[in-house]
Amino acid sequence: MTAATNQADVQASDLIRRILAESPLKAAGFIVTIYGDVVEPRGGIAWIGNLIETCAEVGISETLVRTAVSRLVAAGQLSGEREGRRSYYRLSRSAGSEFAAAARVLFGVPEESGWQFVQVMGPAVEEAMQSLRRAGHARLNTRLAVGPARPMAAAIPALIFRADVPQDHNALQAFASEYWDLAGHAEAYQTFLTQFRALSDSPSAPGFSPLMALTIRLLLVHRFRTVHLHDPRLPAAALPDNWPGKAARQLFAQLYRRLSPAADAFVAHTFVTASGPLAASTPTTDFRLEMLAHEAI
Question: Using CA atoms, how far apart are residues 292 and 73, in angstroms rounded to an integer?
Answer without folding.
Answer: 32
